[in-house]
# Entry
Amino acid sequence: MLWKDSSRTFLSFAFLTLILSSATSLVLGLQQYNTSISSHGGIDYSTTDVIFKDDFRGALSNWIIESGAWTIENGKLHGTASDNQRIMILYGGEVGKGYEINVKVYVISAMKFPEGQIAFRYDSTGNYYFAGIGAYGYKAAIGNFIDGKASLIAYGGGLEAAKTGVWYDLKVEVSASTLTVYVDGTKFCSVVDTTHKTGKVGLTVYSSSVYYDDVEITRLSPAEPTQPTPTSISRLHVEGAQIKDQFGRRVYLKGVNFDTAEFWGRPYGTEQQFIYMKNWGCNVVRIVIECWAIEGGVMNNPSFLQRLDNMISWAEKHEMYVVLDGWHLSGSTPSGIYRHNTAKYMVDKWDAWITQWRTLATRYKGRIHILYDLINEPLQLGTYANYQRKIRQCIDTIRSIDPEVICIVEECSIGDWPTSFDFEQNAPINRDNVLFSGHIYQWFTSSNTKEAIRSRMSQAKWDWMLRNGRAIWVGEFGPQEAGMDVNSPTWLRNFMNVCNEDGYNGYSAWRWGTRTETSMPLLADWNGNPSDYGKIIQEFL
Ligand SMILES: [Ca+2]
# Structure
């Protein structure tokens, strides 16, 4: 988080008003979050063959109407469900265990959300999965019916992002215990679940009137693995301007910041919060180690380290990377003498800071999902040369313990704001496997357009860095300090689109929590429900 005033006083922030529609609150209130593990395309399918196709120009002779009104209309299948009614039509044949189902879906009208989905591994009326458009209010989601009770097990896209009057290409891939949903060719969510092993496939509608067309069910045959199966989490490295995993695949780190105040000052450093983050679609969490908040110093407190251990293990369990961030400095208060005075800190506290990183690198040596963000928002450096020497000392110390870990070096300034990557152009850090990180907030830019955002990035030399083979990740971003304004949704979407279009390596939103006193919380509550700001971030994770 960037403190805008140069006097480095702790600002009071205006309250962000969170408005959730009553419908959304109701739906979210009923959700059950299960532990879920995403698969990221680990299996290569070498052969496929079609099990069944129907373009609905003939009769429904291959189908079994389980419930509701289903008719053929002008070469399309039409299913109509009344309010709070789920209706179902099943393909009569057998499909085996590994297959994908493609179908076009068009919701004509909806009483709640526009809901048209594929049902699969259908065993009986109350026991099956359903996946597709509008489930639980999301663009796409997967639900699991067990003995007539449904729960949400994965979702993607924003709330209320599914629309009526639009043809969607829906695909559900069912492979062993991995269930994945695609809409218009884009993967929206995936989950590993073993509740239902086999069963029929079909189409289902909830509280809506829906057209379906061009159903195709295709058998998937896994290829013989010739290499180790890529997993979601592997040791990352920096290759030119990109982050790659150990299998050579490009990785974008997209997630959230989790601040010391929430996991230490407040009791939210729980596995459940990491499950919510994963369910939002995060693959990284930047854990902020805010030294001033910890009496006696972070590294002297076993309870603090135990809490870090837990969070790092939960992130690993739920397949997310962790950026450990040295956030502001110790021996002080929120408005204390070292905040954003890196030169003074380097004189007074540098040895303790190096010791801190040595302790962390030793404790987490070999944990392949961790990256180290050395020092947050360095300002008031005085001279760059001294800072460069210190940063190299820090990187070399960490690498002497854990040689392959990525170290993150942030934008800096020898004076006050703004920071930039000038230093890398003039006197490079000159260390391998370094990821560079910049922070950007709405108030940095003159307007909410992509042009204004790119102009600000260019001023700070982000484009120069990319052109010259430096990898950039955005460790923090967010809307106005005081919360969302009328321009914030456009700014946020434009910013994330620019990152994705221009080749940056992902972003981490400031910040996971509900507090309004330091602005811009992503959560509406600690049950994982998004604020208005969080809803926009969910679209881009
Ligand atoms: Ca047709």
Observations:
- The longest helix spans residues 384-401.
- Residues 55-57, 75-76, 213-214 surround calcium ion (CB under 6 Å).
